[in-house]
Structure of Dipeptidase:
Amino acid sequence: MSYESYFQKYREQHLEELKQLLTIPSISALSEHKPDIAKAAEWISNSLSSAGLENVEIIPTKGHPIIYADHLHAPGKPTVLVYGHYDVQPVDPLHLWDTPPFEPTVRDGKLYARGATDDKGQLFLHIKAVEAILKEEKELPVNIKFCIEGEEEIASSNLPPYLDEHKDKLAADVVLISDTALLEPGKPAICIGLRGLCSLEVTVHTANTDLHSGTFGGGVPNALHAIVSLLASLHDDKGRIAVEGFYEGVPELTPTMREEFAKQQFNEDKLKADLGLDTLYGEEGYSFVERTGARPTLELNGVYGGFQGEGSKTVIPKEAHAKITCRLVGNQDPQDILDKIEAHLKQHVQPGAKLNIVQVEKARAFTIDPANPMLQKAADAYERVYGTRALFTNDGGSIPIVETLSRVLDAPVVMMGFGLPDENLHAPNEHFNLENFDKGLLTIVDYLKLL
Amino acid sequence: MSYESYFQKYREQHLEELKQLLTIPSISALSEHKPDIAKAAEWISNSLSSAGLENVEIIPTKGHPIIYADHLHAPGKPTVLVYGHYDVQPVDPLHLWDTPPFEPTVRDGKLYARGATDDKGQLFLHIKAVEAILKEEKELPVNIKFCIEGEEEIASSNLPPYLDEHKDKLAADVVLISDTALLEPGKPAICIGLRGLCSLEVTVHTANTDLHSGTFGGGVPNALHAIVSLLASLHDDKGRIAVEGFYEGVPELTPTMREEFAKQQFNEDKLKADLGLDTLYGEEGYSFVERTGARPTLELNGVYGGFQGEGSKTVIPKEAHAKITCRLVGNQDPQDILDKIEAHLKQHVQPGAKLNIVQVEKARAFTIDPANPMLQKAADAYERVYGTRALFTNDGGSIPIVETLSRVLDAPVVMMGFGLPDENLHAPNEHFNLENFDKGLLTIVDYLKLL
């Protein structure tokens, strides 16, 4: 039986199984869902076992458990490590969901549920692909390992120590992840670049109490004046980051890279219309895909201080706050960048204001050479199933664990995504287009065979 | 009997009466206290009647009632209009009060209650001063009118139309108000300047939705970047307001005015220590009392946008907000200032950001020439009772009704305050020092006789 026929035959059964998994509210961020996390881990490990995988383990961590499984009976063949996660994002605001987030529903060829595409649905494809090959051929064309975590949505803090400690056990020739998206329906993409991330929280303090703007206004420092002038100093008036040395380690775009970006034929006018913007904005001299794919950023994610209620309050606030994240590219070192920003802030703060800075996240950018045969074979697999060769793209986002997996296991990472950009990840009405569910199964089988 | 003896004799009775008034929670801001407002108005009108005042009226308004009363039997003598208010501020946070706000208590020569000094206690002095003269001398040395409102703590919106409509009825040679403070115990002051006030709310909009900083960061406008750079542009780096034409109508300080400020011998080092500041901050070339007493300001009272919760959120916010108030001096016109700020904001807003500006409050500054005989006689009265001549001071705050009274009635306003700067107006443990209760009664009697 061809794999098309096989997956056709078991389609309803597979969907029923996936729906079972999707009914488990395994929200990693909320401690009241700890039992659901355990239930989801149990479900995944059972599913791996019944697919024919061996050495299935649920490994407790300080946080949520990691699941390991393998099938290592293809001596001389490459070893593939499949990474995925069984935890999901919170579901607020609940009233915006058309059907409840943990009652999976198919409408118009799309499966709606929290986790449908991120990442339970995509992870499930790998389990079913392996199961299919084992059922049909009794053996796998590669050695395979699964490493599934339950903390991806809360920064994967317990996986890196586990990777460090079990490097040999997890050793692989390629890491395979399905947790990204096609460019658009029918247009597959393999992500070869992710930006790094670093973040900090800044507080400005002035007086020891809020002051009346009548009695004191004009004569004492105002924490809000101090913070807005400080934050404004972080960019020049062309949108370029004004922190000294910020761009060290940022590779200049080569003509080849610019051609690759141009191939995406990104429609900036459509984006402007979609977002209701008169104009895009960013560093001069770069297109939107270049700015988000290959340039670093420094973004204010939150700024607040003083009175926020209705009406007015004549107060001079004693403190003000900012939350800042940077996306990093190339060889920018997150620690170095945070230190440079901190130095800039200290140098530019207004007299009478005191600074408190907390450095939070630190993750390097990830890049891989698209010439790597592991990637080329993935593009081949997509081409055979979708009829279109996958483009190699740079994504503006950050998946810190990808850089960690690549570095610790010293293996190429293939991000073979089957989502779509509008599937409402982290938002109400998350869904997974079943066309990519079907093609995803075939692409994975094909890829494993091509290896 | 001397007035000292008279007030000594009736002291306990007077305090008991004032305590009655202070038990009424006439909080104008909270609609559930409307019956208490009515009760307080009733109490004041009864008190005016029994003091011997005539034509006592409780005048309904769209908001809380105004009380009028007069005693006009001194032909050829000046007419004094006493202004005061019987409403009080809310009392939160209640747990910080040592005794309940509406259970008046005397401790260490201070009467503790909400409204003790602002303004029930100070208003009460005028009623009892007039009563004393009528009891002792059967006639008053002046014609007197009372105009008492119940909305001072909520911006006096219904008094100005009443003043406009009853200009003739309220006509006076001097407006007398006790709703301010001495400089410190034993050091009386007459306020001859109040800053004006204008305010606006600014919203910056960018995209029609919050965006993910990975996918979009660096390529789209960020409402927080737009607002911080816009707000930072409102001042130069010396603390001077950078809005074109802002300082038009601001009188330069004359050597005489500077001498008057210097007489206050204000201790800036003590202020710094009290507020926990390394340094004061403001427009270059001016002392603290000059900055707050004679210079205009533009203060940010609130700025907010984006994520404010714990941890970080990689969001590019679609909107950001600012609340701004200006204190005005001299001939600055609030409408003109608001228009200039609006023009500045429109000119400086970053590409890709849209502005929404709402103008809110508009009140002119108040000033009076201290050479005015009505003020000189007030200083004389203080000198005779306190042994120290009152200083003429400029207050940084704004009491819009003072400028309105002065303008509509075309009369000098004498702010004869008997509070103290640390009596916790608008805060828990508001109190009134009874030394100034006693001296206030005598000063008012003396002033009415001097006129």
